[in-house]
Amino acid sequence: MTRRNPVLVLAVLLALGVAAGAPAQEGYTPSPDNLKARAWFQDARFGLFIHWGVYAVPGEGEWVMHQKRITVPEYERDMPPAFNPVKYDPAAWVAMAKAAGMKYITITSKHHDGFAMFDSKVSDYDIVERTPYGKDVLKMLADACRKEGIKLFFYHSHLDWHHPDYFPRGRTGLFAGREEKGDFNRYLDTMDTQLKELLTGYGDIGGIWFDGWWDKPEADWRLGRTYRQIHELQPAALVGNNHHRKPFPGEDFQMFEKDLPGHDTTGFNDKVELGALPFEMCDTINNSWGYNKNDGSFKSTKQIVQLLVKAAGYDANLLLNVGPRPDGTIQPEFVKRLAEVGEWLKAKGETVYGTRGGPLPPRPWGVTTQKGDRVFVHVLDWKDAVLALPRPAKPVKAATYFGTAKPVRFTVEKDAVLLRLDPAALDPVDTIVVLELGR
Ligand code: FHN
After folding, report:
1. Strand runs (DSSP E) across 261-365, as ranges?
2. Cβ neighbours for 368, distance < 8 A, ≥ 6 positions apart
3. Of 45, 120, 125, 136, whose CB neighbour count within 10 A is largest?
């Protein structure tokens, strides 16, 4: 065995650690409840993302403070006092998510603007103290979710454009007019206390969805301490972090923003490496997260269904976003599409829920999902009569069109299975062929 220079080894390990974002919660062992929650999460496959904050008032997206160079005093003066969602009906939001076939909701407890959408005791910069509405919308949503068996996750921003102690500044929020000083550890204490409030005052929480780490990748975010607190307070709560890297120790799922796992069409995911945790991709229905009155670029229902199916084929959940309006309503374009996706899932959900990514690699024609020995071949874009698949490891015993007894003619070659698709049976959204595998 060759002897290694210990200094060199340490340097390499440290370099790897920095590249992986360590230190986080080193040595973390998920509890049995956490492992159970991870399996539930993977089975669930579809969730509703909600970006809602006082930034909904101007209706120009959640980055308006940064983009329009609004200072802290101006933002405080103009946004919270105008936020009065008198039409907010959490039961209706939950009913909408349920009818869409979604199993969980992830809502912003605090976005980058630093405004808490819950009754925080450690700060008065929150919905109860600063808005005419004066009610804890997250508490109301948590109650409605519990009644309907929908799990609730909180999106919480590490990054904060408002807090005076978020210092040194990162790459964004540089026009907020704050003094050039602050105690970052004090900021992190406040954030941890807010997280404690969320984990102790809102019942069982599905998990915490962090974002904004990327604002200062070089900073010591004390992630270990933060993650440990979450796992101690609620062992089943799943921790995820949208840092666009390989998961750090202490995380329970890996997320991908606006991209399927392993892809980078957005530039966010150029440093991502795939880990071994459950996957979730998030995306928008138009092109905005927070309410944007000028964004009419809505995806079609077909695009959304195909996105959900593709995500499942990549073994990932889809967390699909809406940005509610400042009066508490969700715009009809979103509501309509979600209802239509729900109709599709009612008929075909069996090929998505409770599945894992199938045995065949995703391809431009479509993807496969799998449940035991049943493989669902989702043909999303194929015009020809014959589709050649790589031959699965187990023999194919039968092939039928999903939901029917109608057989799909197929032949098995040495290295391929050829499906002969009936043009009359092709579905423009998703032609699903069920392969029964045997021994
Ligand atoms: O900056 C945020 C953005 O506002 C939004 O919350 C998305 C959701 O994935 N994440 C960030 C960008 O990475």
Report:
1. 279-284, 316-322, 356-357
2. 313, 357, 358, 359, 360, 362, 375, 376, 377, 378
3. 45
Ligand 1 within 6 A of CB of 259? no
396-419 burial code (b ≥16 CB/10 A, e <16):
beebebbeeeeebebeeeeeebeb
**For residue 54, what pLDDT band results from cuts at 50, 70 and 90?**
very high
Q: How confident is the model at residue 268 (pLDDT cuts 50, 70, 90)?
A: confident
User: What mean pLDDT do residues 170-176 have?
Assistant: 97
62 CB within 6 A, ligand 1: yes
User: 377 in ligand 1 pocket by Cβ < 6 Å?
Assistant: no
Rounded Cα distance between 160 and 116, Å, is: 11
DSSP one-letter code for 246 = S
Q: How far apart are CA 92 and CA 225, in angstroms?
A: 37
Question: For the stretch 31-69, what's the b/e string if a residue is b when 16 or more beta carbons lie within 10 angstroms of its beta carbon?
Answer: eeebeebbebbbbbbbbbbbbbbbbbbbbbbbbbbbeee
Q: How far is the CA of 211 from the centre of ligand 1 (A)?
A: 7
Omega before 324 within 30 of 0, i.e. cis: no
